[in-house]
Design brief:
globular, Rossmann fold, N-(1-d-carboxylethyl)-l-norvaline Dehydrogenase, domain 2, 693 residues, 19 strands, 27 helices, NAD, 2-enoyl-CoA Hydratase, Chain A, domain 1, six-stranded mixed beta sheet, 3 domains, 11% strand, alpha/beta
């Protein structure tokens, strides 16, 4: 059993004991019911307290049992709550630290609730595309009111317990240890004659419920966009105005509807994908990690500064190394400006700004960084420059220091070969702006030590990044795939589309930004330089020349006020440019292509299926260990729509047979060689399977 039972001074204490957050798995639910049975059968017991061991009252459902038969095995949480409500003896919830989801619903099923100050209270199911499924939408409005409950349930936001002082959610809110206070409270109510209150018997009152709900529906619909769960949550809360059992039935129907939606599947896929990404198949849990107490960053440019901020935010001292004092001063100035801007917006106190800046030091000498536990190189993306830096690091850094490169495309094995300690070398590819973007691609070289990988994954968690491990290949997971996406975007221009149509089609699909707007933001000259470099090694590489022609026109993007689009000073809105469109049309003529009308559907299929096909190759080659890792890269680093779950899950939902069929159709068209179906994709399609099982 994952619930403990003991009796203290006439009070039975049932303690949920299912680390780390006392998830309400089958064994825990069974333990609660058995504890209740013992308490009700014991004449010496006058009241019952339910609490949680360790760092939580309960975090809700046990995620280890999601999508398993145990999740719905009796007693379900509904059944457990019915046992609590049927109790002839008063039941008191002793809430501390965290009461979320099913944990809060369990507490709402008790007669009384005593909470410690600062306990985090939430019904966060909406974040998984669901709604609370064990009466939360019906009981919470009965204790805190219709509007407050709607706000909590629709947003999924956690609220500290003291905010509920004066409501019927908590009968007492105490400082310090909640259990003694709850036992004392239970003794008092146990000595009193019943009946004891039940949340289900309360009425929801509101002076103008229909007026409020009409306003709320419009607000939530505008906010929710592609996600059905927020509106369903609101409708379920509205059901609390009805008799309890009717509202409960409405909640159940809403839950069963949402659990089958592709949007909920996508959100759950992302939730579990993030956790799965931290597990590396051949690096066991418990692998020793190295202490990272001091970090050095080589380069004070945009990336170096952003990378440094991640560590400063986590309280880890950073030393930035540069070759010139002016570069250091400029970089430190930008870091301070970023923090000052956050302070102006109320996100940081001035004290925090100074605290973080106090952790930052600068130097022009490698001698000043030799004792760092980890050094991250963020210099120009050119192998010769990397060679110089890593040879110097090998010479000066202490033994056991982790030597990381922020390279976005270069061979980490080659970089490691510049040192006599390849086991200490790893890729840490941050995404720009590095202090904002969640993704960190951790690039594993052939000789990278398992302890180094384990350490970097732990560090990533500390600096609040979603880390995904990639093997070594040109572009790793993200940039290797985006190259195929960009290639198709260029071919679409050659064949008849214009930048605005392509961008609008993929943005309507859900991308944050289309390929041409993205190119303008990143700088078209960056891709131009990469194509020139690759042309030396792969002179036969195929791609549309429109991007090169654009750069030859001096149109590098937003930084020059002109790229695929025009930009006005201080305005990031893209304005189509006729000269660019004329260049595209003329290039088609030069190629002998008769331009044709291209549908938005074709644009979306070609861009997304290009990602999918390359993703299948990456899986087959072992560059990524699982499809969900690829999806996490695209959800957290490339603006792929969250409600679609990532390219690989999206392909599963379309059906791999249909994806392969579309690819074969495109293989008969312009640059058909790009549409050779990846063997893994074809194999899974033939077997009627998906990338995610």
């Amino acid at each position: 059993m994952t619930a403990q039972y003991q009796v203290q001074d006439g009070v039975a204490v049932i303690t949920l004991d299912n680390p780390p957050v006392n998830g309400l798995g089958h064994s825990t639910r069974l333990g609660i019911v058995e504890g209740m049975t013992r308490a009700l059968d014991d004449a010496a017991v006058k009241a019952i307290v339910i609490t949680g061991a360790g760092k939580a009252f309960s975090g809700g459902a046990d995620i280890r049992e999601f999508n398993t038969p145990k999740a719905m095995q009796e007693p379900t949480l509904h059944s457990v709550i019915r046992v609590l409500e049927a109790s002839s003896k008063p039941v008191v919830a002793a809430v501390h630290s965290v009461a979320m989801g099913g944990g809060l619903e369990l507490a709402l099923g008790c007669n009384y609730r005593v909470a410690s100050k600062g306990a985090q209270i939430a019904l966060p199911e909406v974040k998984l595309g669901l709604l609370p499924g064990a009466g939360g939408t019906q009981r919470l409005p009965r204790v805190i009111g219709l509007e407050a409950a709607a706000n909590m349930i629709v947003s999924g936001t956690a609220v500290p317990s003291e905010k509920f002082a004066g409501t019927k959610l908590f009968d007492e809110i105490v400082d310090g240890d909640v259990l003694p206070a709850a036992i004392k409270f239970a003794q008092n109510v146990g000595a009193a004659s019943g009946p004891h209150p039940k949340v289900r018997d309360l009425k929801v009152r509101h002076e103008n419920a229909e007026g409020y709900l009409g306003f709320a529906r419009n607000t939530v619909a505008a906010m929710a966009k592609n996600f059905p769960a927020p509106l369903k949550c609101l409708e379920a809360v509205a059901g609390s105005l009805k008799p309890f059992e009717q509202g409960l039935k409405q909640e159940r129907e809403g839950f069963l509807y949402l659990v089958t939606t592709p949007e909920s599947r996508a959100l759950r896929h992302a939730f579990f994908g993030e956790r799965a990404a931290s597990k590396i198949p051949d690096v066991p849990e418990g692998t020793p990690v190295r202490k990272i107490e001091k970090v050095a960053v080589i380069g004070a440019g945009t990336m170096g500064g952003g990378i440094s901020m991640n560590f400063l935010n986590a309280g880890i001292p950073v030393t930035i190394l540069e070759t010139k004092q002016e570069a250091l001063d400029r970089g430190v100035g930008i870091i301070r400006k970023n923090y000052e801007n956050s302070a102006k917006k109320g996100k940081l106190t001035q004290e925090k700004v100074e605290q973080r800046m106090g952790l930052l030091s600068t130097t022009l000498s490698y001698d000043d960084i030799k004792d760092a536990d980890m050094v991250i190189e963020a210099v120009f993306e050119e192998m010769g420059v990397k060679e110089t830096v890593f040879k110097k690091l090998d010479e000066v850094m202490k033994q056991g220091a982790i030597l990381a490169s922020n390279t976005s495309t270069l061979d980490v094995n080659k970089i490691a070969s510049f040192t006599r300690r390849p086991q200490d070398v790893v890729g840490m590819h941050f995404f720009s702006p590095a202090n904002v973007m969640k993704l960190l691609e951790v690039v594993r070289g052939d000789k990278t030590g398992k302890d180094v990988l384990a350490t970097v994954m732990q560090v990533a968690k500390k600096i609040k990044k979603t880390a995904v491990v990639s093997g070594v290949c040109d572009g790793f997971i993200g940039n290797r795939m985006i190259e195929q996406y960009s290639r198709q975007a260029g071919y679409l221009l050659d064949e008849g589309a214009l930048p605005e149509q392509v961008d609008k089609a993929i943005e309507k699909f859900g991308f944050a930004m289309g390929p041409f707007r993205m190119g303008d933001l990143a700088g078209n000259d960056i891709g131009w330089a990469i194509r020139k470099r690759r042309a030396v090694d792969k002179p036969d590489i195929q791609y549309s020349k429109t991007a090169d022609l654009l750069c030859e026109m001096g149109r590098f993007g937003q930084k020059t006020g002109a790229g695929w689009y025009d930009y006005k000073a201080g305005d990031r809105k893209p304005y189509p440019n006729q000269q660019v469109n004329d260049m595209i049309v003329q290039h088609s003529k030069d190629l002998g292509i008769t331009r044709r009308k291209i549908s938005d559907e074709e644009i979306v299929e070609r861009l997304v299926f290009a990602l999918v096909n390359e993703g299948a190759k990456i899986l087959e080659e072992g560059i990524a260990s699982k499809a969900s890792d690829i999806d996490m890269v695209y959800l957290t680093g490339y603006g792929f729509p969250l409600f679609r779950g990532g390219p690989m899950l999206y392909a599963d939902q379309v059906g791999l047979y249909n994806v392969a069929l579309a690819m074969k159709r495109y293989a008969k068209g312009y640059h058909g060689e790009a549409w050779q179906v990846a063997p893994l994709l074809q194999k899974l399609a033939d077997e009627g399977k998906g990338f995610n099982g």
